[in-house]
Amino acid sequence: MSHHRRRVVFAPNASTSGATPAPSYSLLALPPALVSLLSDPATASSIEIRGHKTDAAVLVTDSQTYALRGVQNSNSLMVASSGAQGAMGDGTGGKDIMLHATLHETLEVVQGVARTDKVEALLKGSEYVGEDAEEGRSTAKFQTFETLTTFLPASNLAIRTALTSHRVVPLNDYLRPLPPSYLLKILPPLLTSLNPTLLPAEPESVPPPKKKLKAGKDKAVAPPAPVEKVAGVVDAEVEEMLDTLDSVDCGNEVGKGLLRWFGKQKEGKKDGVWEVNVEELVKEVGIVLLASGGYGKQPLDKYLNQWRTLCGSFAPLCGLPLIASSHLTHVGPPPQITYFPISRLSPDPATRFNELFGVKARWEEADMIRFIDDLVGGEKKKRDGLVLKFVRKVKEADGRTTWAARNLWA
Q1: Which of 214, 244, 280, 301 would bridge 193 by S-S if both were Cys, CB 3.0 to 4.6 A apart?
Q2: What is the DSSP string of 309-330?
Q3: Quick one: which of 345, 376, 377 has its CA closest to 358?
Q4: Which one, of 47, 106, 97, 40, lies nearest residue 72 by Cα?
């Protein structure tokens, strides 16, 4: 039996050979879902590693963000390749084994948190405030979607969601935030241009008619007339809405982007008919009105009256539950309200709870839930897990149970 021995040779070091810098290597363990994406030529290019040099790198697909976690290998592994024909001096030489690197850890891919908290800072200075202000304006520091992805460790879906949350529209391929003061100028005219009579009426539940005895006969008592309540969506002509926006200094391209936040094209209808979600539009008017007052406390009654006035015929929809994740209320007298948008809170659970307990040491359960439900997609089981980890329940002297930070020294 013949035996072949092979010589092990270390690859030349770039620092000593003066050659082009040698590549570095890492082992990456992928879950089955990512292996499947990489195996399909149609989706393989959607996987990339993102993150600014000041951030921890993440691996992303179009819709998911994964963290990279280093795990020590129990045995070091070597990256090797076949080299040139060797010469062992005994006539049994085979091809050399070329060693390129020794690897002591493997990068694991785990579900991560999309970090989009820098969106507001990155887009600062590129606000759109009307067509009149656009003339002669420099776009040198404006961001496009592509340039934004180089700064944010997040998937495309997470970035688009953040752009919508921060009320950003595309204009000539640049990303342009619409500030609250400008939205407060253009949204009320758009809302009041809609026809409230086109909304479906929702009659309140009426108890079955009662009978009462009169002159020996049963006589049905007529039920009260149903009370109509504003709700749902309303159909509107796109061109008419764009004309309304144009009259308050909002160009067509920005107007079309804005309309997508509050509705969609009506199915089975021509392109010019739009289903407007009136409740979302009323909600936005309430949020930008509150935001225009800054982050300090504002008189609650005055705020509610202003909101209802701006919404005109749709005033019955105005109510604090509609803007639940954008405000905090304070017991008076007089009662007050503070602008507190969830979009300014961290998407990282530990940081989010620290931020919330930094604002208030004690929270009512219902109040805190509205500021953490987005972390778990509204799933109660996952939310309970976060509460167990970060919250301790305190029995107050008046019998109420409040939530406090589990570790006050964290």
Answers
A1: 244
A2: HHHGGGGGG--GGGGGGGEEEE
A3: 345
A4: 106
Over residues 126-181, the pLDDT tens digits come to: 999 999 999 888 988 999 999 999 999 999 999 999 999 999 999 999 999 999 99
Tens digit of each residue's pLDDT (9 = 90 or more) over 307-337: 999 999 999 999 999 999 999 998 878 999 9
Which element (helix H / strand E) includes 192? Answer: helix 180-192
Please give the helix or strand (H or E) that residue 403 lies within, else none.
strand 401-405
With b meaning 16 or more CB within 10 Å and e meaning fewer, what string describes 14-41?
eeeeeeeeeeeeeeeebeeebeebeeee
How far is residue 210's CA from residue 195's CA, in Å, rounded to a whole number? Answer: 37
Contact 69, 107 (CB under 8 A): yes
pLDDT at 365: 92
DSSP SS3 for 218 = strand
Tokens of 1: 């039996």
Residue entry with tokens 């709700």: 231
Give the pairing of strands 363-364 and 391-395.
unpaired
Enumerate residues 6+ apart whose C-beta is below 8 A from 326: 286, 287, 290, 339, 340, 341, 342
CA distance 152 to 114: 8
Total-model pTM: 0.78
pLDDT by residue (tens digit) across 289-313? 999 999 999 999 999 999 999 999 9
388: exposed, middle or buried (C-beta count within 10 Å: 0-12, 13-18, 19+)? exposed
Angle between helices 300-311 and 180-192 (to 10 degrees): 50
Q: In a 3-state reduction of DSSP, which class is residue 143?
A: coil
pLDDT for res 198: 57
Distance CA 112, CA 238 (A): 40
Residue type at position 289:
L
| Cα–Cα distance for residue pair 112/31, rounded to 1 Å | 13
